[in-house]
């Protein structure tokens, strides 16, 4: 990793977890469209799978507020 990239990485570690996740998303979006389409398709499949598991009662949902509170506690 270059010195600039290392500095950016270290600075990013000072962000809240949610802010780091947003940064990761923006960086990921900067890659080419074909790669994004493959990831989007995989996420769509994962979301569908999770909805089906929720409908079957195999998993429980959490509110966004609870999820972000748990993330920010880390």
TrEMBL record:
Top-level taxon in the UniProt lineage: Bacteria
InterPro entries attached to this UniProt entry: CHP02574_addiction_mod
NCBIfam families: stabl_TIGR02574
Protein's name in the database: Addiction module component, TIGR02574 family
UniProt source species: Pelodictyon phaeoclathratiforme (strain DSM 5477 / BU-1)
